[in-house]
Every structure is written in C-alpha cells, then in structure tokens.
User: Fold this.
Amino acid sequence: MVRIELQIDLNYEIDEHGADFVFNIHAAHTLSQTISAEKLLLSQPVSTRLHTDPVSGSRYLRASGLPGHLALTYSATADLLHHRAEPAQLAEVPVRDLPPEVIGYVYPSRYCESDRLINLAIREFGGLPQGYQRVMAIRDWVQQRVTFRPGASNSNTSAVDTLIEQAGVCRDFAHLMIALCRALSIPARFATGTDYGADVALGPPDFHAYVEVYVGGRWYIFDPSGTAIPMAFVRLGTGRDAADVAVATIFGGVKAQPPVINARAVDDPSRGMELPHHCREALSTDSGPLA
Amino acid sequence: MVRIELQIDLNYEIDEHGADFVFNIHAAHTLSQTISAEKLLLSQPVSTRLHTDPVSGSRYLRASGLPGHLALTYSATADLLHHRAEPAQLAEVPVRDLPPEVIGYVYPSRYCESDRLINLAIREFGGLPQGYQRVMAIRDWVQQRVTFRPGASNSNTSAVDTLIEQAGVCRDFAHLMIALCRALSIPARFATGTDYGADVALGPPDFHAYVEVYVGGRWYIFDPSGTAIPMAFVRLGTGRDAADVAVATIFGGVKAQPPVINARAVDDPSRGMELPHHCREALSTDSGPLA
Amino acid sequence: MVRIELQIDLNYEIDEHGADFVFNIHAAHTLSQTISAEKLLLSQPVSTRLHTDPVSGSRYLRASGLPGHLALTYSATADLLHHRAEPAQLAEVPVRDLPPEVIGYVYPSRYCESDRLINLAIREFGGLPQGYQRVMAIRDWVQQRVTFRPGASNSNTSAVDTLIEQAGVCRDFAHLMIALCRALSIPARFATGTDYGADVALGPPDFHAYVEVYVGGRWYIFDPSGTAIPMAFVRLGTGRDAADVAVATIFGGVKAQPPVINARAVDDPSRGMELPHHCREALSTDSGPLA
Amino acid sequence: MVRIELQIDLNYEIDEHGADFVFNIHAAHTLSQTISAEKLLLSQPVSTRLHTDPVSGSRYLRASGLPGHLALTYSATADLLHHRAEPAQLAEVPVRDLPPEVIGYVYPSRYCESDRLINLAIREFGGLPQGYQRVMAIRDWVQQRVTFRPGASNSNTSAVDTLIEQAGVCRDFAHLMIALCRALSIPARFATGTDYGADVALGPPDFHAYVEVYVGGRWYIFDPSGTAIPMAFVRLGTGRDAADVAVATIFGGVKAQPPVINARAVDDPSRGMELPHHCREALSTDSGPLA
Assistant:
C-alpha cells in the first residue's frame, strides 16, 4: 500500500462581479483509493456544495466566490491499494463486449479528435499484437515524439495540435495518447491527480494529467509524459478529456495564482506502506466508486 | 398530443471481417414520449443487446454483423405530450444552480469548441436580456448565417468550421448553436430524432439533428436549421454532440445505403391527437427517462 | 510632406552554432518614400548582403551571425509624399483588369485563408456598393470584432483563428482584413512598417503591421487595428502576409530582445513638412520602386 | 530527349452573370522545355490575354466567359531536355547562400504550414545527411504514410490535414512534402503539369501536381504521390502551393466538367527521342524561362 499525505493550496483574485467555481480537487473515492483525515478551508464565508459522481467517484465542489481574495486549502490522506496485473495477460476488449458505461470512451472528444486519426493509428499500431503491450507502444510513441515544454501549448490545444507541433505539457501528452487509443477503438480516458517524484527541473509539484485505458476488463494507469511515478498518483477526476475534469472551472472574472501542492509519501513498512516506485506491473485504481 | 407512426430501414454491406454496430435508433423512453407497438427486425440471425441509458432514456442496440448484407427495420408508435411553456417566463439558470447532471453540458466537446467562442458569443449576445429569448436570438443568428447545403460538410466538421464556412446540414447548425450557448455558460445538448414536415426540396425524410437547451429548469427544443416541425420530432438520443449519439456507430469495414425513414402523424382529434404544427410556445420533452 | 527620422535597435543572443538572418528593416525605396541619411551598424564583424526586390522596392539584408551577442542599429530619414485620393472616386478593379503582378494578391496565403471565407464575406459585404467604401466597411467590421490584446495570439495564428477568437495584435487584424478582401476578389497585401502616434497604453513604439488594398488602380493604406496614424507609417516591406515580410527571419538558435524603435516626425512648415495626422482622404504610397 | 504531344480539353457551364478565368494551361517556356505547334481554341468569341511570368516562365491566360457553355482546347508539342545529375552530388544550399528569388520558397504558404512542422521535421529528418538523399527520405516518408484516395480531401485541405488524416490526391502529397522540406529550410515549390504513365486504376490521365526542390543550385523534380513518370511531366506552372498555380482560377458562378487530357510520348530514337521511363538520376527542368 502507498500512503500519500496531500495538501493543495489555491489562491484567486475575484473581480467586482464575484465568480462561480466548480472545483475537482477532492481525492476521488474509489475501491482502490481510501481517503481519510480530509479538511477543506475557504477564506470566504461562502456556502459550498459537494457532489459525488455516482459512476466515477469524482467529487465536485461548487462555490460562489465574492469579490476579492479567495484562498482554498484542501488536505487529505490517501491510501492507495492498486489492483496489479501482469501486462502480458491484459487483452483488449472487443467493442461488442464493452460495458455500456465504457463505450463512450471510444468516441472523440473536444481535445481528442480520434475520428481524424484512424488512418494514422492503424498504420502505426494496427499490425501490433493487441493488448496492454500495444497500449504501451502507443504511450512510447507519444513519449518519443512530444517534447515536454511549458508554454508550448494553451488551454485550446488538442491532440491534433500536439501531433503536429510535438511539444506540450502532461495534459497534451495525455490527449494525444487518448486520441490514438480511441482511433483503434480502445477506450481511454483522461485522469487528473497529483504527481509525485517528478523531476524538479520541470518545476514545483503540480497537478498532473495522465491516462487510464480499459484493457483486461479494468482501467489501467499510463503516464505518457513519463514525468512522475504512477504508483503515487492520487486521483482527483476522470473524464473524456480536460474539458470534463478541470481542477477548477471558473465562471467570471478571476485571476489565479499558481497552485501549491504538497504530496508526501509515508514510509512505514511496519504498517505495510511502501514508498512509490516505478514498477513493470500494470496498475489499476479500479474505476468504480465505493458502491 | 401528437402521435407519430415511425418506420426506419437501414441497409449495410459488411466486408469479410464482419463488423460491430452500436445503433441508437430506438425512440427514447421519456416522461413526454411514450413508445408502443415497437418492432425490430434484423436480416441476420445475430444476437443483439439493448441498453437503456439510465440518465437520458436513450437506448443503444449492439449487434455484431456477419459478412454480407445486413438489413434492419425498426417501427414504433410514439405519443408525444410536450411540456409547454411561455417563452418570456423561462430564465437562464446560473451555473451555481445547475443540477450536477446538467453542468457537463456547458463544457466544450468534439464538435462544439465553445472554449474558442467566448469572446464572440459575449460580443454578439452578451448584451441581450437573459432567458429563452436570448437562446432564440442565438438560434436566429445561426440560421441567418449558415446555408443548408448537403455535401458542404463531412463527419469531421465542427462548429468552428461551420462558423467560418457558413454552410452545412442540420447537424452543423446544431453544433454551432450548441457551441455558442455553452460559450455563454448556457447548457446545450445535441439531439437526434426523426424529422417531419421538412421541405421536400431538401430531400427525402431523414434523421434529424436539433438542439435542446436548459432554461427554466428544463430542456427545451430548438431547431436551428429551421427545416422541420419540432412538435413532431421523435427523440432517439441526446448527448454532448454528434460523437455521442450517432444513429449508427460502426466498427469495421461497412458500406451504408441511405436510410429510409417514414414518419406519419395520426390525425384523430376525437382521441386528442393533433397534427404537428409550428407553435410559438416553448416545447420540452423533459429530459428524464421513466424513473 | 511628412518627414520621419527613424532608428531601430535589435539585439540577439546567438547560440554556439551561429545563425543566419534575413532582415527586412530597411525602409523601402518607393516613388512616395524617399530615404536618406541611412546608417546600418552591426556589432559583429560579419559580411552582409542587401537585396532590393525589383517589384516591391523592399530591401532584404542577409547576415550570418556568430555565437554571442549581435546588436544591429539602423537609422534613416524617410520623406513621405503620399498620393492622395477622394475615397468616393476609388472603384474596385474587376479581376479581368488586374495587372499580372497584382493578381497573386487575391489568392489565399498562409495566414489569410480567404478560400474558407467566401460565403461569410459575400453575406456580410456582398450587398455593399463596390469601391474604397466597401473596403472601409471591411476594416470597420474587423476593428469592431477584434480586441487588441497582446499575448492572445502567436506566430501561428491565422485569419481564421482571429475571426473565431476575436483577439490579437496588429498583425492579426491585418490578416483578417486581408482574408476578407481576397474572399471578395479584392487584392490585398500585408505591409510592415514603423508606427507613430500609437496610444502609449498599448506599449512602447514598435513595428507595425497594416494593410494595403488595390482599388482605383493603386495600393491604398488601411490600418485595421486603428492604433496609429497611417500618414506616418514608414514602409519596410509588403507581401502576401506575415510569412513574407517578417522583420527578421532567423535560421538557428537565437534569443531576441524586444526591438527598440524611435520614429520622430519633423515639424517644419517652412520646408513643407507637416506633422502626421488622421485624414479622411485615401493615402497611397504607390507600390512601385524607383524605376 | 522526350517529346510529348499534348492536348487539354476543358468544358464549363457559366451562369447568367458570366465569369472571369485565369488559366494556367499553357506549357511553360523554360530552358529545358521547348514548346512548339501550339494551338488554343475557345468556343466563345471572347478576347483573351496571355501573360508570361518573367521569373518562372509560367503563362497565364485571362478570359472573360459569357453565360453558357465554354469549351477550351489547348494542344502543343513539348520537347523536354532535362538537366540530369548524380543524386549523391547534390548538396543542400545554406540559407545564407540562397539566391533572393529562391528564399521565398522556405516560407510557409496557405497549404504548406511549415511553421508548425519544425519540431516534427527535425525529429524525423534532422539527423540524416543533408542533400538530395535527405529530400528523397522526405519523399519516401510522405509516400509511405499517405494513401492515394480521391475524395478524401478537398480544395481547403492543407499539409497539416494530410499529415493527420493520411489520405489524399497528388496535390496533398505535394503539399505535405513541401511543408516538411521548408520546415528544414530547404526551398520547395509546387508544380503542376500533365502526368504520363500513371496507373490506369487511379483514373484517366489528369493534371498532375508534384514538387520541385532546390538542391545543388537548381530545382529538381520529385513525385511524392509516386503515380507517374517524372521524366514525362510537361510543366505548366510553379508556385508556393496550389493557391498560386491552379490550372483554372474562376471568378463567378461556373460548373466545370472533368478535364480531358491526352499526353502521348513520341518514340523515335532516330531523332534522339526516348520513351519516358523511371530513372535514378536527379532531373531538373531548370527553373529559368527563356531569358
């Protein structure tokens, strides 16, 4: 088991009209991710509502901010107990056998225009043996072609843009990998979380975007930007792409400061806790919420 | 009440590998749309599975077609009893008050890149009084700018393309109207159905794409292409955009013939049935399924 | 006559491989623009070649920079004696009567995708009386829709992007106006120069991008961003769009500092010099070089 | 020497307003391409003007068509005497040494967005030895990735679209190859001509689009679609991309029938004429006109 102690600090300046927020900063409740010791502090005396998506376990916090400064601090302890599998044993699931709640993830979305990439995906990956290994080949292909370069992309950048311009941040790597999987009818979705173990040269700890792909009957984690240690990702949300799971969707005139994120792994073998590390097994956080 | 007797005929040639289909041709079960006398015939002895989406009431049929010809005939009687409202009384719902299952419809999607249209939407519509009438102004704006021209667009065409090139079919009108609504944080979704009363000059009866917008606490029907009579639309599916609710999503090598669609209104005032006609009231089919 | 005393300072840091430059910072030699007292200083002892385009009079300086700092200073005096015309008397020229060297400017180019804007341009401007006034209507349309916002665009941004996103800098205003003119078969080209009289709130004096449109048998100046005084523009280059007339096209690894530009008008009525001011007459710098 | 006897038949229906045409169907006069026995017939008694571009030798015919049917027949004999070179001896020319009239062909253009492909081009081809062989590697890369499929593209399709969707016609292959060359600062241009020897499965003889790349101090022919025999191409025009050298640019309401093209090689060894065949040498038609 991996235990992560997490703290997220967000700061905004809201203009004179006030602004509405939808935050997705609560760690998701899933079968593999147990959350405890959760605290949420807002600097304004505003009412909030927390909604848990019944399918994904993602939690959305809505708040209406008043003009002026708004600070939000979220802290929690996340215990991660992944389902692990042998990569060679994870087969792709034929479209005819996909569960209804999964099939939407083979369709194109705002930032993952898989409908335009079908020829390319078939040419590059169509001849490979199907399964987890083919998905790994897609991940590697993306990682080899795209350069991590903050500032090279913006919030409008899509998978097609990234395929052409070959530079971006974790979100762009994720969108391109997802689009390629879907072009082959492999369900893939966008996940946001907190990273851990990222190269400090890439900047301070930040929110992270990565990919979950449905093979062998479960959603498995892939990290196409290759910047962090997947075993330590605390999942916040999953969706079609970044449009669905922005950490903060803001309606109104707001200036945001960079988030401050702290994710510390607890190293206590006596209690069965191990430090996060790269591993060759496939890791799944099981998509389901606590039923 | 409007009663529509419906028949849909689809024909495909499937290549030697066979193909998987997800059809969305069953009329949706909703509180306002009652379906009876339903029949489905397939020319191949293949097993099918029908899945009803618990939120939208849309029904998805999955089938694995064998090589060769596949014919599918669906017929049903749909009784439509719309919720009607006075347009002037339908206000927009602030983001903070949107139900959780509605909020996803203010986000951009594959064919509705609302994130790129915010400046434009605010400039064109930001000064208008909020409510149903503003949505009508968006509908009119789209209708005035886009020319109905089969062949001017294809399955990759998005709202941004249509805004630039100003020609397309009903699907393109719908995508552009949806994108503009979302750019103003008004929830809007894509609906497919069968049309009725369309100008014969536009071709034989066909599937139709239109828009539902969430105002006054319900989803109301809008027909930006202005080609048919909304009161007679039999709803098949709703989704983010055409990616979600294709009448047929096909995985494999298949040639499709044009669909043949027959929608006949029953004119029987003695049983409370009226013929579909244009009306100035707002019409809602209530988004909910039969709970 | 308007006399402008001009100084341009450019500074670059060149990486260890050196870099090639094509500068277009010399004021063009045209029938209306007489250049004197010209000086060019480079901080590196590198050989340069100056090429004058025989058609446009634009001058291109090529230099191969060595690793390290490269500073370039160009100064000159430009005497501007515009051809002036009464707007109401400037008719559009039918395509059949365009001179061969002009016809290329009705074709689409990298940043001016006029081929996609034909429906839109005809709908918006097709019913207006032809001539200079119609071009003014296009200029006003662009000015009303696009917001001047540094950082909203980048070097890949095209007219279609600007039409959608409605924000940009002078270059983007110019591209959109050019694309709309060409969509109506009105020849239009991109011009670079130095600005004068720009609102200081927009930042320090800078290079400027504006538009020349061929009506009444000559190229006339239009300033769609509306940020400066056209009578004082010192023309550097003209081309299809920004791809042709970058102030500096750089081949190699180079970091550029912001340019420092000084354009001072000489106020000496005794010698026939007037200060630049906005005027209602049409101004042409005559496209031709000193034959 | 290769002798081609050429006939081109074009047919149009012009609407009631008449229409202006700019044709580029005359075989270019160049040092390597000698034209004789030229005939032009128009079915309407309209005046025409023929303009020869002084730089490229391309000839443009302007005509104003009357309402109704317009038929145009052009026939000529073209004697092609290519400059031939050993591929291994053709080096790339550094930007600093490019002639002024060539440098424009490293800039991006409407259908060749080389500015967006720099990372990709460097990653794929940056490590290869420079010269003709690197250009061949680009040609092969394009040929391997793009599938020849009429109907997969339209007149708005650009190199970026083709890179993503990987299907198109000769024009699309050419645009993508050009964009990749320019992204590496190798001058490349679009050429139109008549093809010869194309696989009949691809359809009847047609106009052809191919590429000329500037290496070793000359423009050499490349045929990225690989559909015909370069030695027999009769050059009509060259330009930045298809925007510059449309076979017919039409201003007005016109319906075009498919062109009928006949290109016959004369096989007469006694007069030094050989039949066109694939050869491993580099072929140049010398860009210059008859000076």
Q: What stands out?
A: The mean pLDDT of chain C is 93. Chains C and A do not touch (no CB pair under 8 Å). The first helix of chain C runs from residue 100 to 103. Residues 59 and 135 of chain C are 28 Å apart (CA to CA).
